[in-house]
Write a structure and sequence with these properties.
CATH architecture: Roll
Order of helices and strands: HHEHEEHHHHEHHEHEEEEHE
Structural class: alpha+beta
Distance between the termini: 28 Å
Strand content: 15-25%
Number of strands: 10
Helix content: 25-40%
Radius of gyration: 17 Å
Number of domains: 1
Strand order of the largest sheet: 2-3-1-10
CATH class: Alpha Beta
Length: 271
């Protein structure tokens, strides 16, 4: 069993605890220019870790483990990028290069052509012309439609479950941050917005919260990859708390045997 709280902790914590506390404290953290992390892991995915808005500043091998120093910048303080995110025109027929287009694929876990997905998307996004508005609407829908599941969290944490498929989640309306990400990602891919499944680590010492976590990252033409979080009542993804360790088409593609071995740091320091 994981030495940290289950993935459920993140899903419930953000919605119930963080925002129940002072909004001013949250946005004080969210307005930091940069955040520095130092951690030790067993199997780092360097490509995923050293990827905007994260940057590896130092890495060394210590026996079988890797010690990594990381700086994360605040993407929301980049006025130019934020403007591009919000101004991007939506184009259902837009074509992407191969590396980006692969994040439009359907998988058994994230079926973007599922009947329920199509019905929700066709109703929710009808006549929308701005990519960012579509993303915002999807975030709000998933955040309000789903509720946390302790049993699924325990199964994912133990490596028994590889997350629950979108069709089942939409019908049961239960899941962890992974299932929230699955549903959001399916909606985006149906709308021809490339979206990847990110898995990492969440740490907010100010609220005594640490856990593994999953969230989606959308590709917006002109702005690049943008992290969002359907477990939060805001499009602002908490750069000050999240470290991306892996990303893929879905959870399976992230090549995770267990969260404890592949994702959770052995040691962790935040500055």
């Amino acid at each position: 069993m994981s030495k940290y709280p289950f993935m459920l902790i993140m899903c419930m914590f953000i919605a119930q605890s963080v925002f129940a506390q002072s909004y001013s404290k949250y946005f004080r953290l969210a307005n930091q220019d940069t955040v520095n992390f130092t951690f030790t892991v067993k199997k780092p995915d360097i490509k995923a870790i050293d990827c905007y808005p994260q940057r590896i500043t130092q890495i060394s091998k210590n026996g079988d483990n890797y010690e990594i120093s990381l700086t994360t910048i605040n993407p929301y303080l980049d006025g130019s990028k934020l403007a591009k995110m919000k101004e991007a025109k939506y184009d259902k027929s837009r074509e992407y290069d191969r590396e980006i287009a692969r994040f439009l694929q359907s998988t058994p876990l994230i079926d973007a052509q599922n009947e329920h997905v199509r019905q929700i998307a066709d109703t929710l996004f009808k006549d929308e012309t701005q990519t960012f508005i579509i993303i915002e609407k999807a975030l709000k829908f998933v955040y309000t439609y789903l509720s946390p599941s302790d049993s699924i969290a325990k199964q994912i944490d133990a490596g028994i479950c590889r997350t629950v498929d979108v069709n089942t989640v939409i019908q049961t309306r239960k899941g962890t941050c992974s299932e929230y990400t699955n549903v959001f990602t399916a909606l985006m891919r149906y709308m021809n917005i490339p979206t990847r499944f990110a898995v990492g680590y969440w740490n907010v010492p100010e609220w005594n919260s640490e856990s593994t976590h999953a969230w989606p990252e959308c590709y917006i033409e002109g702005a690049g990859w943008c992290s969002v979080d359907p477990t939060m009542p805001s499009y602002i993804c908490p750069h000050f708390a999240e470290i991306r360790m892996r990303y893929g088409i879905d959870y399976e593609d992230c090549d995770i045997k267990t969260l404890n071995y592949d994702i959770e740091p052995i040691e962790f320091t935040k500055r």
